[in-house]
Amino acid sequence: MSGFRPPLYPYERLSGLRALAEALPGGVVDCSVGTPCDPPPPAALRALATSGTERGYPPSAGTVAFRQAAAEYLGRAFGVEVDPSALAACVGTKEMVASTPHYLRLRDPSRDTVLYPSVSYPTYAMGARLAGCRAVPVPSLSADGGGLDVGAVDPSDARRALLLWVNSPANPSGGLTDLDAVADWGRRHGVPVFSDECYAEYTWEGRPRSILESGSDGVVAVHSISKRSNLAGVRAGFFAGDDALVAYLRDVRQHAGMIVPGPVQAAAAVAWSDDGHVAVQRALYLERLELLAHALSQAGCPTSVPAGSFYLWPAVPDRWTDGWAMAEDLAKATGILVSPGDLYGGDGAGHVRIAVVQPTERLSLVAQRLSASGWG
User: Which residues lie closer than 8 Å to 359 by C-beta, 6 or more apart?
Assistant: First the structure.
């Protein structure tokens, strides 16, 4: 029988490297996945435990409190005014990324193409495949994966496109995209632009930006508390933007049973309402980025702090053949587990991605091991 066979999940391919890193005294320092290690805001955890919403069915679109808190967050962070009724909850943004092409194709069966960054989170392309669509990569504007060269999109692909995904700051490169320019391109070509803004709080060059600053017509911004508030385990996010797109997706998702649990909605409303814990987290991530970028550079692997995100994206020095060889050597010598760049598309093969999500003392251990081992 022929048909779709799911490939091995990308991070499951790292098991051999993990074993090498675990063998060092002190064990592995896992920087392969962007899983937060720092505590969530205590007030959000209290709301999670005491909301009293466990017995009833919460609204799929989000409670009034959830949507109000999310709308107010957009106003504070980006200066955009969004009516809470034009905003809806999602069960973490990964499922939103994976399911949206399927729902949009039901809306317009004449289109069958998903445009996405050529160096990016694997779920953009996988969501297209799961919907039976064509996944067409859009090249970056720079060699390090920054920006999005929408001018390179073939007109025939644009005519068939259900949507274009953009991610700024980008995973894995940390690059920033001109969101106004991408929104303008989408409107001119009749292609909805979905902007994954889960790393917006961790913008280091300039201020955080949202595609909604260019207006809501033809665009949807997607946000999450996973990275912003260290609440990846509760699975909550929201989407806002174009009235017709938001209303359609809100309604079809309700039929599909996409519902954020009531206690999670209560916790998320508290998290969206507080900016203090984000300021603390920003300082931690910037410190860790600078620490590890300096240690790698000193060890002969020039590494810079990205324009945004909490990932380092160093190019593989000539002494290694590719990102897998470099990742293996790092695991053996320093115990750090990193992701080879080709997990994020073929254009990423000449890099590795390092998520600085481990405690600072663990990253300091990696720096010490780098210095002591003569790595590289």
Answer: 37, 38
Could you tell me which of 282, 357, 323 has the C-alpha nearest to residue 119? 323
What's the rounded Cα separation, in Å, for the pair 286 and 211? 24
List, in sequence order, the alpha helices (H) in the chain: 15-22, 42-50, 64-78, 93-107, 123-130, 155-160, 179-189, 225-228, 243-255, 262-272, 276-298, 323-334, 360-373
pLDDT at 374: 76
d(CA 166, CA 359): 29
Q: How far is it, in rounded angstroms, from Cα 295 to Cα 255? A: 51
The token duo for 278 is 């984000």
Task: Give 138-164 pLDDT, tens digit per residue.
Answer: 999 987 777 899 999 999 999 999 999
Crossing angle (nearest 10°) for helices 276-298 and 360-373: 0
**Tens digit of each residue's pLDDT (9 = 90 or more) over 149-205:** 999 999 999 999 999 999 999 999 999 999 999 999 999 999 999 999 999 999 999
Can you tell me the distance from the alpha carbon of 351 to that of 234, in angstroms, rounded to the nearest whole number? 31
Round to whole Å and give the CA distance between 17 and 80.
Answer: 44
The type of residue at 222 is V
204 CB-side CA count, 13 A: 21
Q: Where are the alpha helices (DSSP H) in 3-62?
A: 15-22, 42-50
Calculate the alpha carbon distances from 32 to 18, 27, 83, 194, 308 in Å.
10, 14, 38, 26, 18
Q: What domains sit in the chain, N to C, each tagged with a CATH number?
A: 10-39+277-373 (3.90.1150.10), 42-273 (3.40.640.10)
* Look-up of token digits 């996010």: 237
Instruction: List the beta bridge partners of residue 166.
Output: 195
pLDDT digits (tens, 9 = 90+) for 237-254: 999 999 999 999 999 999
Q: Return left, alpha or beta for 18; rule: phi > 0 is left, psi -120 to 50 is alpha, else beta.
A: alpha
Report the alpha-carbon distance of residue 48 to residue 233 in Å, rounded. Answer: 12
Per-residue HEC secondary structure of 127-184 comes to: HHHHCCCEEEEECCCCCCCCCCCHHHCCHHHHHHEEEEEEECCCCCCCCCCCHHHHHH
> Rounded to whole angstroms, how far apart are CA atoms 199 and 323?
24
